[in-house]
TrEMBL record:
This is Multiple sugar ABC transporter substrate-binding protein. Pfam families: SBP_bac_8. The lineage of its organism: Bacteria, Bacillati, Bacillota, Clostridia, Lachnospirales. Residues 31-62 are annotated as: Disordered. InterPro entries: SBP (IPR006059). GO terms for molecular function: maltose binding. The keyword Ribosomal protein does not apply. GO terms for cellular component: ATP-binding cassette (ABC) transporter complex, substrate-binding subunit-containing. Keywords: Signal, Transport. One of its GO terms (biological process) is maltodextrin transmembrane transport.
């Protein structure tokens, strides 16, 4: 027993170190700081929550309110106070009606979350539940951190209504380890006044996108922008265009890879897209958009309310992503998982309660995300809401990044190709070959 325990700890240490270096955030989400992923710190915890590493009055109060109930600790990294408060509202409601459990929330800085999770696995100091980026879920499931809830969710009333693509992010080796708490996809946001002045309509395909970007460009602003940051943020914004061109995730060195990269490098060369996109995060680009420095941007639904709040007078709209051979988009968002062997019964009761469609859809609306079930396609709270139809109509063809513990390493191949091509260090043909080497090395391990 001691030998197997040592081996397991050694494996966790090794994999934990790898994950700390590689898991830099999976696309966009309202949950990360200021609606971004890949950096920053969480704001001060909302009332009733605790911040990791600190003892606060809220922490003391929360413990006192448990009144002998089973305490369920849940970690998240929701980086804006409004979202923290919204989640705490649901937790408070659950605690008030539960006779057996008391849920306590801990907020960790997004930049430290995965490191803390990996190291806590080694130290056997994990919480009972966590929210986790959906493209990271397989890696932690492979580590043996999450509870297998396959049999439990089979009885869940809406289990069969989840889209297969989003449920794939909750599944590893044929078993279910999480449920999709919130989901998102991308759209093309544009400045309506600038488009009217340029005399162009929103693009629907790659050729129109290039023409749109060029026509929208003036001496004062660029016509188009997307995130090409060397992190999962860049991968998640590029990969829908790659898929749309006919690409397969593990075959970047392809006609589709060259076509998608060429479209973007052409925009760099003709001046319709700023060279800075290789450094801009998903938090930087919306600021450029509302300041009038870029006329359009690829961005997720999680920016709807942010734009309303931060640019109330800006005349903007959003449309589905332009497509090529096929329509494509990418899922982002968070899954909710239970830690293996940690108060599983009570944790699942909270999961089942929180994931009820009516509650979960209200949570998603408040965070500018959507529940990944068929019901959302006919939910008037989304279909009749301002800006939302552009995202909802894309859900049927939105897909998840390939579900594999190796994805963080594979993603580096995309990031490398983007950086080399958009800085004009390499041609698109050379860049996809360089990126493919990294992907092949990851797959060979």
């Amino acid at each position: 027993m001691k030998i197997s325990t040592r081996k397991r700890l050694a494996a966790l240490v090794t994999m934990g170190a790898m994950l700390v270096g590689m898991l830099a955030g999976c696309g966009g989400s309202s949950s990360a700081p200021s609606g971004t992923t890949g950096g920053g710190t969480a704001t001060e915890a909302a009332a009733g929550q605790t911040t990791a590493g600190q003892t606060t009055a809220a922490q003391t109060t929360a413990a006192g309110n448990a009144q002998g109930k089973q305490e369920i600790n849940i970690w998240h990294y929701f980086g804006t106070e409004s979202i923290q408060v919204e989640f705490q509202k649901w937790v408070d409601e659950y605690n008030a009606q539960s006779d057996t459990a008391f849920v306590k929330v801990t907020v960790l800085p997004f930049a430290d979350f995965k490191k803390q999770l990996s190291m806590s696995a080694v130290a056997d100091s994990l919480p009972d539940m966590v929210f986790i980026d959906n493209c990271d879920c397989a890696a932690y499931s492979a580590m043996g951190i999450f509870e297998d809830i396959t049999d439990r969710v089979a009885q869940f009333p809406q289990f069969d209504e989840y889209y297969d693509q989003i449920m794939a992010t909750c599944t590893y080796d044929g078993k279910v380890y999480a449920l999709p708490a919130e989901s998102n996809c991308l759209g093309l946001y544009y400045n309506v006044d600038m488009a009217e002045e340029a005399g162009v309509k929103p693009p629907t395909n790659f050729e129109e996108l290039k023409e749109f970007a060029k026509a929208m460009t003036t001496s004062d602003h660029y016509g188009f922008s997307f995130c090409a940051h060397p992190s999962e943020e860049g991968t998640s914004q590029f990969i829908p265009f790659f898929w749309s061109a006919g690409g397969e995730s593990m075959k970047l060195d392809s006609e589709a890879g060259v076509r998608a990269l060429t479209m973007f490098t052409d925009m760099i060369k003709d001046g319709s897209m700023p060279k800075d996109v290789v450094n801009w995060t998903q938090g930087d680009i919306p600021t450029q958009f509302i300041n009038g420095k870029v006329a359009s941007m690829v961005m997720g639904c999680w920016r709807i309310q942010w734009l309303k709040n931060n640019a109330p007078d800006l005349n903007w709209d959003v449309v589905p992503l332009p497509s090529d051979k096929v329509k494509a988009n990418v899922y982002g968002g968070e899954n909710l998982a239970i830690i293996k062997g940690k108060n599983v019964e009570e944790a699942f009761k909270f999961m089942e309660w929180f994931m009820d469609y009516d509650r979960n859809s209200q949570w998603n609306l408040a965070t500018d995300e959507f529940p990944a079930t068929e019901k959302v396609l006919t939910d008037p709270n989304y279909t009749e809401a301002e800006y939302w139809p552009a995202f909802i109509e894309q859900i049927p063809y939105t897909r998840a990044r390939d579900v594999t513990p190796k994805w963080p390493e594979i993603s580096v191949g995309y990031q490398t190709a983007l950086q080399n091509a958009l800085t004009l260090k390499q041609t698109p043909e050379e860049a996809v070959k360089e990126g493919q080497k990294i992907i092949d090395e990851a797959l060979a391990k």
